[in-house]
Amino acid sequence: MGRVRALLGTTAVRLSALYLVLFAICAVALVFYVTALSDRMLREETQRSVAGELRAISTVYRGAGVAGLVRVIDRRSRRPGANLYIIAAPAGDIIAGNVAAIQPGVIDAEGWTTVPFKYQRFGDANEGEHFALAQIIFLPNGMRLLVGRDIGEPEQIRGLVRQALVLALAIMFVGAVAIWYFVGRRALKRIDHLSEASKKIMAGDLSQRLPMGGSGDEFDRLSLSLNSMLDRIGKLNEGLRQVSDNIAHDLKTPLTRLRNRAEAALVGKHDEGGYRKTLEEMIAESDQLIGTFNALLMISRVEAGSMVAEMSEVDLSRLACDATELYEPLAEEAGVLLTHEIAAGVKVKGNRELLAQSLSNLIDNAIKYVDGGDPATIVVKVTGGPGGVELSVSDNGPGIPESRREDVVKRFVRLDASRTKPGTGLGLSLVDAVAHLHSGWLELSATEAHNSAMPGLTATIHLPGGA
Amino acid sequence: MPPMLDTARCVAERQACEPRDKPGKTAHMKILIIEDDLETAAYLSKAFREAGITVDHASDGDSGYFLASENSYGVLVVDRMLPKRDGLSIISSLRAKGDDTPALILSALGQVDDRVTGLRAGGDDYLTKPYAFSELLARVEILGRRKGGRDTETVYRVGDLELDRLSHEVRRAGQPIPLQPREYRLLEYLMKNAGQVVTRTMLLEHVWDYHFDPQTNVIDVHVSRLRAKIEKDFGEPLLRTIRGAGYMMKAEG
Predict the structure, then answer these.
(1) Residues from chain B contacting residue A297 (CB–CB below 8 Å)
(2) How far apart are CA B78 and CA B92, in angstroms?
């Protein structure tokens, strides 16, 4: 019972049933239409032949009177497959003809009988009733003449049509079942395969992929999009795992330092000034840690795209001018020349805060790592065109070897192995994430590729143009 | 917010170690802290009291709203996520009744959007956890004094330094000091809040409209440039650095 219900619950069965019902309705309607049509044609044919015969008999009657009429009727009655003939007295008693009995009242009205009537021929009393249509005319002497035709034939045709209908319905039912079996059940099987694979994936095996039939049909397309979704999930998952590894590694170290400092202060003998110094160092260390946490959270949120809501028109030229101006004193103090080539009025659709922070990170990095350039120079550039907008920060420092450029974008990756410069190793990761959030990308290239000693680094944020 | 506790303790010690030299400035201020984490609330209350500020505390949204409606406070410090009633709804309900007590929202949600929603709900300032107590104190003090408002004054004076907000001219002892537009805005903000600690983040927010922490302390360089211009040839220092907190404009005596 449960199995049947499950079967009835499947889409394939429902579709087949719906198909069957619709086609049955159509077939029945068609059959009835055809039957009605043929019925009408047969009646018309009957009427035409009866009317013709009646005309001929009337002519005989006009020439030869009642005796001639009886004669012609007798003759015609004996032909094989003859029509029905009755000559009746004014009172309705049958005088001549080939009919033994007739439904009472039929002969009392002149003209065409509206419905088929019952009659009995001579000699076939045991064969049951026959139906006929007839035309009746009243002769001038009060006698009645009936000429009719048996309509047993049309009834037979109707029976044939009914048989055909039953046969057609049977074939349709078989067809529906076959369609369900071959098409529906196959589709059902594939859906079952999909659910099987999904279950495995849900159980934790993210490397599983949904099966493909190879025909490129709807199911393959579904599998394809689900598979690419899984790829994306896998990548995010991988990113998450990488981040947790990095957190474990890069946050444990400062936490350990923090703890050690506290412990050392606790066991050591210090005056108030000593304690205060330790506490201040610990606060600085905590702030650094918090900064790292915030940057990580920020990157995750930007990567998850949850900040898309606050997109508005941003004047990139203005933003770059402001950022340059913010860093200019710092650069000067570091002995770096910070200049800009900013095209006016370049606008993009984006998040001002994130773009400003990205540019700050790039300028900050450049100031930190430019040393070696002579004179150390940083150029902030904004160019805009219909093809896209570019926001770049170039320096003439040692640059980044081409092989490492992809790495530095990753979280916590710092080329400065000794880690003497302050920083979290997250700056470029954020810039990269922000560029992607804005449907753009971050490009790292050499400022002067031919200068092998000091190629410099140019970080360019490419953004789609036109706000 | 249990993860914040350690930081909170650190900041408490920092506060205890660095008493501010602001005699009587905010002694009359009374604030309401609506914070469900009792440990944070206790530490905040203690730290504010040490800074001379009277503190009431509510530990859930309903009682916080009740206290804020019944009493008059200088500033409300409202945690964003509270039991019974969320912090933003408290502020917007108060605003709807015409109560414009300055409100500072404390939140673990610190992204740009969160801050914007907080300010739209009627908050006057937004601080992301974890924060340094010195930052919170500086902001509360400035919010508390804002009621009097210096926005209507056309000339700010600190000692013999004058800033004319109409002509954008800065003079010290009658001598004009030419400033870049940004330096002018920096000085204007510092002088508007003369006698109050202004933190680096506050300067970034109000002078540059940046709501993130640049990795390097760019603000210090700007301030020292400004300081050089307004103090170089003049005797009395007016722009002080407050260790572990920020800056303050203040005339001697």
Answers:
(1) 110
(2) 12
- At residue B209, φ and ψ (nearest 5 deg) are 60, 35
* pLDDT greater than 50 at residue B19: no
CATH number of B155-249: 1.10.10.10
CB B36 within 8 A of CB B59: yes
What CATH number should be reported for the domain whose range is B7-146?
3.40.50.2300
Taking the CA of residue A228 and the nearest CA in chain B, the distance in Å comes to 30
Query: If you count residue pairs, one on A and one on B, with CB atoms under 8 Å apart, how many are there?
Result: 78
Task: Tell if the pTM clears 0.80, that is, is over it.
Answer: no
Sequence spans of domains, chain B: 7-146, 155-249
| Residues in B touching A280 (Cβ below 8 Å) | 14, 244
Residue pair A342/A317 in contact (Cβ under 8 Å)? The answer is: yes
Q: How many CB atoms lie within 10 A of CB B2?
A: 8
- Residue A219: per-residue pLDDT: 81
Residue identified by tokens 């350690």 is: B6
Of A290, A309, A332, the CB nearest to B113: A309
Check CB contact under 8 Å for B215 and A356: no
Q: How confident is the model at residue B44 (pLDDT cuts 50, 70, 90)?
A: very high
Q: What is the 8-class DSSP label of residue A409?
A: G
Residue A324 at interface with chain B, using a CB cutoff of 8 Å:
no
pLDDT in tens, A304-358: 776 555 778 888 898 999 889 889 888 888 888 888 888 888 888 888 888 888 9
Asked if B95 contacts B122 with a C-beta cutoff of 8 angstroms, the reply is yes
Q: Within 13 Å, how many C-alpha atoms sit on residue B241's CB side? A: 10
